[in-house]
Specification:
The protein is of the alpha+beta class. Among the domains are: about 120 residues, Uridine Diphospho-n-acetylenolpyruvylglucosamine Reductase, domain 2; about 100 residues, Vanillyl-alcohol Oxidase, Chain A, domain 3. Helix content is about 30%, strand content about 20%. The chain is built from 14 helices and 14 strands. The strands form three sheets. Strands 5, 6, 7, 8, 9 and 10 form a six-stranded antiparallel β-sheet that branches. A four-stranded mixed β-sheet has the order 1-2-4-3, covered by helices on one side. A hairpin with a 2-residue loop joins strand 5 and strand 6.
Length: about 425
Amino acid sequence: MIAYLEHFVHGTDKESRPDDDFVDFSEALDLQGTIDCAPNAMASKDFGGLQSVKPLALIRPATADDIARVLKAAARSSNLTLAARGNGHSINGQALADQGIVLDMRSMEENFHVVWIDGSAYVDVPAGALWEDVLKRCVGERGLAPRSWTDYLGLTVGGTLSNAGVSGQTFRYGPQTSNVTELEVVTGKGDTLVCSETENSELFFAALGGLGQFGIITRARVVLQQAPDMDVDRLLRRLRFLRAFKFQVDVGYTQFLLRVKRVEEDAKANGIWDAPHPWLNLFVSSHNIIDFDHVVFKGILSEGVGGPILVYPLLRSKWDPRTSVALPESDIFYIVALLRFNPPPPRGPAPELLVAQNQEIIQFCSSRGFDFKPYLPHYKCQEDWKRHFGNQWTRFVSRKTSFDPLFILAPGQKIFSRNLQP
């Protein structure tokens, strides 16, 4: 394995001891970070626990320049691929690289900077930082907060921006991809570019929701606002709802946003956190949600999913169509998240049965012609990806050709295959 890495960097076939190869590889790249050519199981699996593949190496970059050097070295090989791993919360192996290189983005979690531009506040955040760290730094130290979150904050900034990033705030403020004004991205060609709506805009919108296909996000500038106050009655007066159904629990803003952290702690205490998690996330049009409820919630899932089910509405107008995210056509659609926390067999059901149940739900939506899209999508062949992106597919391919022409990035998504060089 290590000899292969030495060979693709130097282009030689010389015999050498493994230790010599490791030194050669490290010195050839001249990284500030570290290289592990015998990575532990962390780099071979993800939170879903449904797949396990072995990478050639795990690299912990210290800077964007480290990432650029690795990508340029990979381009000199015939078939090496590279996957960025945040906190490992992909479900279907999207952050894995079979016989490729995994970048541990958590090694780039420091260097937060709050900046003020024309009277508005932003925070420059490294892509490997967790959103819960952003919360603690911004709210605890400045009384400021990003407008849009995810329901679970143990995710990296780069990871959620590569998908969309949704939560209960999305209905009002849009997804996280609509609340970032600037990115630093290392493209598949090894170019490090700062991009925004006005600078390198095609890369900016490609990377947002781009599933890691066009570049690796290394820094993001996130919009901030004053952290909200706790005058619940004043906030509720703005809503139209049946007063008899009001249920109120007073907690602090930070405690509320970290509410899923308690689920994580309980799952770890009960030995469930490391069990397989065949989760399913869908965007379902408001036109189809009643039929979905009747057949899926009251039928297929009548016995529950062994964990939380999240359902809330989203407005299409809050999403920027220039990003790479594929959405339903409806003006209003719902996020449906089936967050399974089943114990491993024999205490719990076999993961294969739950995966089959997920496929049954997707097949039902497809057969009924629902206006829906999987969120955090996963397919096994390019034809399914073409159907997923629909009329956006041509743009997606064009962006791939522009920013990752050798198809090095994000092999675990199974959208493109690495070009074989002569």
